[in-house]
UniProtKB/TrEMBL annotation:
<dbReference type="GO" id="GO:0005737">
    <property type="term" value="C:cytoplasm"/>
</dbReference>
<keyword id="KW-0143">Chaperone</keyword>
<feature type="domain" description="Clp ATPase C-terminal">
    <location>
        <begin position="404"/>
        <end position="489"/>
    </location>
</feature>
<dbReference type="Pfam" id="PF17871">
    <property type="entry name" value="AAA_lid_9"/>
</dbReference>
<protein>
    <submittedName>
        <fullName>AAA family ATPase</fullName>
    </submittedName>
</protein>
<dbReference type="InterPro" id="IPR027417">
    <property type="entry name" value="P-loop_NTPase"/>
</dbReference>
<dbReference type="Pfam" id="PF07724">
    <property type="entry name" value="AAA_2"/>
</dbReference>
<dbReference type="InterPro" id="IPR041546">
    <property type="entry name" value="ClpA/ClpB_AAA_lid"/>
</dbReference>
<dbReference type="Pfam" id="PF10431">
    <property type="entry name" value="ClpB_D2-small"/>
</dbReference>
<feature type="domain" description="AAA+ ATPase">
    <location>
        <begin position="234"/>
        <end position="394"/>
    </location>
</feature>
<dbReference type="InterPro" id="IPR003593">
    <property type="entry name" value="AAA+_ATPase"/>
</dbReference>
<dbReference type="GO" id="GO:0016887">
    <property type="term" value="F:ATP hydrolysis activity"/>
</dbReference>
<dbReference type="InterPro" id="IPR003959">
    <property type="entry name" value="ATPase_AAA_core"/>
</dbReference>
<dbReference type="InterPro" id="IPR019489">
    <property type="entry name" value="Clp_ATPase_C"/>
</dbReference>
<dbReference type="GO" id="GO:0005524">
    <property type="term" value="F:ATP binding"/>
</dbReference>
<dbReference type="GO" id="GO:0034605">
    <property type="term" value="P:cellular response to heat"/>
</dbReference>
<dbReference type="InterPro" id="IPR001270">
    <property type="entry name" value="ClpA/B"/>
</dbReference>
Length: 499
């Protein structure tokens, strides 16, 4: 259908539309734009992309406009500082130097962008001239060679991050979807097969100390990508089993980001809220005649809106078993009917269940030398079968999450402290330094706690942050210019020195 409309849109917008743009409009609108139907949303997407490309040919790029506005704002700030100084007001030398540096940086960046824009406009004129000669009937090899050369020059000047699109391609379509949904265009343009092949490595970078669990997850999704899994089931049904604070929820979050484009593509449901049989209506929606009919269920409505997503059923062992029976249909047929009778498709979802059942057994087995993840999964299966019905458990892939070793807990502690360090710098331009013994103490406290890595955040939030914030506010109230915060261990807790 879009191929039939192609000539009309090209004539209307006076741009060239490549076939890859038509394919991208259908695929991206189907995957990322919810609440509307094909072909309507694909047509609107293509129309908007063509309009934007036409505007790029005639108007100043948004990047240049944004830099000009930023430069003007910094110029006004410098002018105001200059006037206050002339009137005798005290000037903060460091702040003045910082503003001047930012002004110079934006000025240089703007000059670079303007140079790129002029070069791209000149190259685009060559491309359009060569294309017009071909349209006028110059079909010789010389005309085609000139067109290819003009295209190559344009691509070489603009690169991947070009300011002007010569034609409507898949990249132009992806950028429109990015504006509509907030999903980075780069993630939509990335090769899906390549992303799955590298999933194990990229997931391992996000989830520390769980190499065996990451491998099982990646293998499950590669089987689905190869098309050799049961096409009537979700892409994966994974049961994450292990103690708290070892990365189960973080793995689900990372999968949503790496596979689908962001954490918004994860539906997280706390199954501890479904301990009564009648609470199943909250998942699928109330039937006709009952309160809440027409509002949709928290599970079915989320998947209906985003059929490509991760579904996280957190602490599933706390839900009533009758509620869990609801998932037989999802795990077996990849569909579920909501309260209004609409069939919701789960075939493009990854369903992840987390549980703390058999955590002690996992920890005992993990402490035995040479015990593999597969052996641990088989060892905990009888304990899981005592809670879940065997028929339901058979539809899941058991993925044991092992206790984190001390060196991994130290890595995670350093990451959390690094995040705190960045927040201090972004908020107040304060450089934070954490003593090595403090990092060791935090990691040791996490090793001794059943909360695992989650305990790092709890300790920072309950003890370090209150003390640090008190010191900072006292310094700010006294008019002290703080440039550095050094945190270490003292006799009675944290020792914080502001400089």
């Amino acid at each position: 259908m879009l191929r039939g409309l192609r000539a009309t849109y090209e004539a209307t917008h006076k741009v060239t539309i490549r076939d890859e743009a038509l394919v991208a409009a259908v695929k991206l609108s189907h995957r990322y734009i919810a609440g509307r139907q094909l072909p309507d949303k694909a047509v609107d997407l293509l129309d908007t992309a063509a309009t934007r490309v036409r505007i790029e040919h005639d108007a100043k790029p948004e990047a240049i406009v944004a830099h000009e506005e930023r430069l003007a704002a910094l110029g006004r700030e410098l002018e105001l500082r200059k006037r206050e100084h002339e009137e005798g007001a005290a000037i903060d030398g460091d702040a003045q130097a910082e503003v001047e540096g930012r002004h110079a940086g934006v000025q240089d960046a703007l000059a670079t962008l303007r140079g790129r824009w002029e070069a791209e406009r000149a190259a685009l004129a060559e491309v359009e001239a060569a294309r017009e000669r071909l349209r006028q009937g110059e079909a010789g090899e010389e005309a085609r060679t000139a067109k290819r050369a003009a295209d190559e020059r344009f691509q070489a000047i603009g690169g991947e991050d070009r300011l002007i699109h010569a034609e409507v391609d898949a990249d132009a379509v992806a950028r429109v979807v990015e504006t509509w949904t907030g999903i980075p265009a780069g993630k939509m343009r990335s090769d899906t097969l390549g992303a799955l092949l590298s999933l194990q490595d990229r997931l391992g970078e996000r989830v520390r100390g769980q190499a065996s669990a990451v491998r099982v997850v990646a293998e499950t999704l590669r089987i689905a990508a190869a098309g050799i899994h049961n096409p009537s089931t979700p892409l994966g049904v994974l049961l994450f089993v292990g103690p708290s604070g070892v990365g189960k929820t973080e793995t689900a979050t990372a999968l949503a980001d790496l596979l689908y484009g962001g954490e918004r593509f994860m539906t997280a449901i706390a199954m501890s809220e479904f301990q009564e049989k009648h609470s199943v209506s909250r998942l699928i929606g109330s039937p006709p005649g009952y309160v809440g009919y027409g509002e949709g269920g928290v599970l079915t409505e989320a998947v209906r809106q985003r059929p490509y997503s991760v579904v996280l059923l957190d602490e599933c062992e706390k839900a009533d078993l009758e509620v869990m029976n609801l998932f037989y249909q999802v795990f077996d047929k990849g569909t579920l009917s909501d309260g209004e009778g609409r069939v919701v498709d789960f075939k493009n979802t990854v369903v992840i269940l987390t549980s703390n059942l058999a955590s002690k057994l996992v920890m005992q087995r993990a402490s035995q030398p040479g015990c593999t993840a597969e052996a641990i999964a088989e060892a905990i299966r009888p304990a899981l079968s005592r809670h879940f019905k065997p028929a339901l458990l058979a539809r899941m892939t058991i993925v044991p999450f092992l206790p984190l070793p001390p060196e991994v807990l130290r890595e995670i502690t350093e990451l959390k402290l690094g995040a705190l360090k960045r927040r201090l710098w972004d908020s107040h331009k304060i450089e934070a330094r954490f003593a090595s013994e403090m990092v060791d103490d935090l990691a040791q406290r996490c090793t001794e706690s059943e909360a695992g890595a989650r305990n790092v955040e709890a300790i920072l939030r309950s003890s370090l942050m209150p003390t640090l914030s008190q010191k900072l506010l006292e310094a700010f109230a006294a008019g002290q210019a703080v440039r550095e915060a050094v945190v270490g261990l003292g006799g009675e807790g944290w020792q914080i020195e502001l400089r």
